[in-house]
Structure formats: structure tokens, C-alpha cells
Amino acid sequence: GSLIEQLTTEKYECMVCCEVVRIVAPVWSCQNCYHVFHLNCIKKWARSPASQAEDGNSGWRCPACQNASMQVPKIYTCFCGKVHNPEWNRNEIPHSCGELCGKKRQCLDCPHLCNILCHPGPCPSCPAFVTKSCECGQTSHSVRCGQSTKIHCSNVCGNTLNCGKHSCTQVCHAGKCSPCQLTVQQVCYCGSNFKEVLCGSNEEFSDGFGSFSCQNICGKKLNCGRHNCKQVCHPQPCQLCPRLPQVVYRCPCGQTPLSKLLELGCVERKICTDPIPSCGKTCGKPLSCGSYEFVHTCESLCHEGDCKPCSHTSNIYCRCGFKKKVIRMFGWLFLFLIAAITFMCDKRCNKKRSCGRHKCNEVCCVDTEHKCSLVCGRKLNCGLHRCEEPCHRGSCQTCWQTSFDELTCYCGESVIYPPVPCGTQPPECKKPCTRPHDCDHPVYHSCHSEEKCPPCTYLTQKWCMGKHELRSNIPCHLTDISCGLRCNQMYRFRLLNVGDCNVVLFCNLMRKWPVCLTSSTWRLYLHLYTPLQRFICCHKLNLTFLFSRIAAISIATKLTDLQLGDSVEISRLITKKEMKQARLQCDEECLALQRNRRLAEALEIDDNSDPFNIRSSGPKYSDLLKEDARKDLKFVSDIEKEMRMLVEAVNKGKHTKKSHCYPPMNRDHRRIIHELAQVYGIESVSYDNEPKRNVVITAVKGKSVCPSNTLTSVLDKEMQSRPPPPIPHYKQTDKSSGNIGLSKPLKEEPVIDYFDVQD
Q1: The CATH number of 623-717 is which of 3.30.1370.50, 3.30.930.10, 3.20.20.70, 3.90.1150.10?
Q2: Could you read off the pLDDT of 613-660 as tens digits, one per residue?
Q3: pLDDT-derived band at 339, boundaries 50, 70, 90
Q4: How far is CA 431 from CA 425, 438, 454, 636, in A?
Q5: Where do the domains of the chain lie?
Q6: What is the Cα–Cα distance from 664 to 689, expressed in whole angstroms?
Q7: What gap in Å lies between CA 253 and CA 86, rounded to an integer?
Q8: Share of the chain above pLDDT 90, in %
Q9: Higher pLDDT, 4 or 538
Q10: Burial of 218 per CB tally in 10 Å (0-12, 13-18, 19+)
Q11: Which of 174, 391, 453, 535 has the most CB atoms within 10 Å of its CB?
């Protein structure tokens, strides 16, 4: 009724095109779900790949119920299928022929056809009345033909059960009667065992005495009356005695007939208990340990009964075939097979697994594919997550994780809506950058996801480094601008008071090179030991000085000689008047040193003496080690810092030993580490070959101790106590011109230790 109303009022929609089904439009109706479609729509759907069944051979599927059909509809018919291209009549149902339907109803046992006019949808149930019997067939009732319910009476079924002995006791029911549920006792064929089973089960295997086999030895007396049956429990009767004279025709090994043995004088057998004559030959019966290729036989003389165990040995190989083993056959094949299966060697497989990264490492491996069972664990393309699949070759798949939050640019104008795959970069934005900038110039670059903005390229005016001219069209981000002219700036010096009125000058523009002033001459001295970063003059000064007219250009021309350790005479550049304008004043430290000096003179204490053994109580460092430390003080300082941390860690921790591995280094640096390790009580060993030879140090708890004075502190004290290196003398070649001629001092050849004892 609903279908008729919607089709008549043109409110029914086609599921394929979602358009209204018109009264005059050709249609097709599914015979399974009764949905109505446009004929052209269902033709297109049937030919499309989406409509094909999963197996590919069952035709096309209905869009509504997914019922498969083999034939594609081609002709427009009415609902009952009698009339092709039915014409629409205002007084009839749309798309019907107006005649009786006449289709078979859905009820299988209904013989009547549909008696209403051609209609959409399923046919109604049959209204006719018929007489039907109950399930047991004892009573009958008048019911509708289309009624699907079964008729049951209140009588007992009474049909004979499967056993043929008992009747069904259930009330009238549908289908076959259930098997008989009564239990009976059955006996085995040999009569030694009993069991309870349902009545009527396994009756066809009965031999009249028993009904099943207990799988034990029969044990019944044979027809001879002297021997028992040795077969497994079997139906009656038992076989003849195998030792009867009329049954045995050959010797026990079967090689010689008894007739020949009787001709040779053997006694004729009368009964089954008489012994079977032996031929005296080798038995030769095949043993159970043999195989099709290698048959082992009995080596005993012809005998009755079972053969003895096999005395042969055989070689068995492990699963992978790498090792073999010699075992006795024992006369039993299954023992040999068990030994062959369980024998495995201890060789580990060195082949690569299927991933190409890991080794198999299986013991006695017989695998051919060597599949890797580990997890891949490599980072995916997103850079945040790791691959969780089994270890594999090639590139990992893309990260499957997604975010359901919107991904925006910095300013929020461009948006990527979820789902957003993991690792997706922020979207590009054409808007100007809105991040805070160091300058106030207009922004010409677009919005970006990087934290640092591009340098500002706005053209400005800036002074050069020497303040000579104002340069134009200079990008904003440039800071050091050169005009190409000579600098002509004066050097700037600063004074430091160090120790007992010792004066050191540091030049700011010469990267803190020390300048020492003496009372006799004004000399500019460059410290030879630059790692120490300081030089203390040993002269006791009481000077007045002022460097307002030092000719910086003259000093700069001799800068190369200064770097090589030479000195420059600058006394001609300063007048006596300028030297008297200022005088250094002694501070508290100077007074304390003067007081200590007077006390030492009163007690007659020598400056070089060590009455309290203070200087000798510390660790002893060799002269060669000290010389190497002066050449590379930073390296020695880092090594001592690492050793001190290692010793403190092992003494405070729970472990008895701790090690540290240094990177590869040259022979001189390794010798320094070995010598310092002896001072700290640390074990040191060199490994690997050149050029990758390195040192590993190991600190032992209770043995390794940090010295009171480090090598760097010892060098500092020696530097303060000893006089400075002699200042080389120079010969002035041209006094009239004022030019200073400097001669370079001779350089000593370095002492090289070619024997690395520790290495």
C-alpha cells in the first residue's frame, strides 16, 4: 500500500539518481526487496564496476538489498511481468498492466497463485482454507493455506526409534525422532572388557558374542588346545595354531623346506609342541631398524622366536647437516628416528634475515627464508614516531597517525583542516609576516613557520667602522661596513697592577698581548706563553709613566716581529716630562709583601728555602711533562679535569671501577695522558692502530687519588717565582731616520721523544 501511494503521487525516489520516479517513466522492480528504480539508472548501475559481486562471477548487486542477479534488465515490464511497456491508465496502479497478478506466493507449500491485480511489492498471504495433519500424523485440522505455523496435537508420538526395539515417548513433534537414550552393556570380542553405550549404537559390528575390540591380546585357546591366540582382540573365530605340523612347511628362517631336512635325518614333527628343525644357516631376516636403501638382517643362526637386537651402527646428521653422530641401531627403527630428530649441533646461523639488517643466530638453523621477528623501530617520515611493523627492507610506510586539530600558519590566515597527517608542514601564507622584528622598517617577506625571520634588506644610511663617511644604500642587517680607506685609529692600552708593584700593560686592539715596563728602558714585550694569558714582570718598579704620545703606527709596523717574540725600543717616543707626570701608588698588597719581606730578613729565612716541606709535599711532575703542558695548557687542563671527575665519581659511587675513553689523538698527547694517569693513580692503556689509536683510563676505588696541586697550578706558581726569559737585544741600524732595526733571535730545536713507552 505504501509503494502504491508513493508511486501514484510521484513521491517515490530512485536510489541510483535520487530523482522522483514519474508515472510515465520506465522502471524496474527488484524481486527480492521490491525497490523500484529507473530502468536506465539500473542499466548503468549494472554495468558499473561498483555493482559487481565480490567473487566476480555472481553478476551484479541490487543497490538496495545487495542481492546478486545474473541478467541485466533491458525491457520495461509491469510488476507481474506479463505486459511489456505497459501504458499508464488513470484508474490503474502506475506501471501495472491492470490484470490479475498470477505470481506464485512466497509460501512454498501453497499451490494457489496470487489473485489480486498487478501490484508492486510482495504478494499477500493466501486466503484459502485447507486441511493439514499434525506433525505426528494422528490428527488433522482446517487452517489457512498461507499459515506457516506447524500443527501439534497432545498425543504421544509412538514411532519406533533407531534401535528398532523401543518407541518414541515425546509429545507430537516436528522432524525425526531423537536417538534412543537407553544405555546397554556391551562386551568385547575376547570377553575380557565391558562398556556401557546407547541402545542401538555399533550393533552392526557385533559377531554374536561381542560388539567392540578392547585392543588387548585375545589370549583364547587355539584349536590345538596348547597355545593361546596372540592377535589383538578380534571377532570370532581365532586362526589356526601357527605351529601345527600341517601348517609349518619350512625351517624357522624360511630358507630350507622341512622335506629336505627330513631327508637329512631330522625327526618328523607330530604335534605343535615339537621343535621346528633348524637348517643351520644364518637367519638373514630383515630387522626393523633397516630402511629401503640399507637393509639390516639378523646375523644369528636359524632360530625360533624373535631376532636379537641389531649390532650395526649408523651415521645421523643434525638438521642443518653440519655435524654427524654415530649411534647404535638397537634393532628398533623408531629409536633411530627419535635420535635423528632430536640431534642438533651448536652452530649458529650467520645468514642475514629477510630485513637485511640482523643476523639469524638460530642454532642448527634449517630455515630458508630467515624471516626477521624484531620490530623495525626506525623513524618514520614525520620524524616523531617510529615504525612498529616487523623489521623489513626498504623504506618504511608513511606515518599512519593523524591529528584532528586545525593546522594554521603563524598568523592564522592559512588553515589545513583535519584530519591532518602526522608530519605535515604548516601551510604557506601570502600575508606579510607578523612576528616581532628588531627594526621598525617595513616587512617585505611573507608569513613563515621558521622561528627566525630573514634578515632585513631595507636600504639605510650607516657610518663606516672608522667613522670616515656616511654610506648610503646599505641593507639594514649589515653592521661592519668598510669605506676602503686607512683606519688611522690610535691603539688603546690599559694598566694592571699585579703582585709587588709589577706592571703589565694589555692592549685592547692587540687581543690582550702583555706589555712589560722596566726602569732602565721602555720595552714592549710579547708574552711567549700565550695559553697562560698573563706575564708578570720580575723587576721591582717605582715608575711614573703616561702613554699619551706613543706612536702606534711605529709599533704596528713591527707587529710581525712582536708576534715572533722580539722587542721594540720605544724610549725615543716618550719624553721625560711625560714620564714624571704620574707615579704608581702602592696598595695594601704591596704593604703586605713588604712586611713579609722584613720579617723574613729578621728571622734570616731564605726566599728559596722550604722549611715546612710545602713545595715538595705535592705531586712530582717531570720536566718533560711540564714542558709539554706549557705548549698546550688547555689540553692538559681538560685532561686533569676529566681525571679529577672520574676519581671523585668512583670514590663516591658504588662501583669499584670506572673507565673513560678519549678520542683518537697523536703520540705526544697520549704520552701526556699516560704520565698524568700515574700521578692520579689511574690505569691507562692504548688501543687500536694509527691514526685511530686512543687511550682508555680506568680509576680504581681506593687506589686512585686526586693530587693536592694540579699541573696547571704548579705551572702558575713556577711562573710567578722564576724570572722571565731574557729579552733579546737588537741593534739599531739607522739612528738618524728613527727606524728601528730588529734582528730575530735564534730558535731552539724542539726535543722530540720518539719512544712512546706506554704505547
Answers
A1: 3.30.1370.50
A2: 444 445 567 888 888 888 888 888 888 888 989 998 888 888 888 889
A3: low
A4: 17, 20, 15, 56
A5: 1-124, 623-717
A6: 10
A7: 96
A8: 9
A9: 4
A10: buried
A11: 535
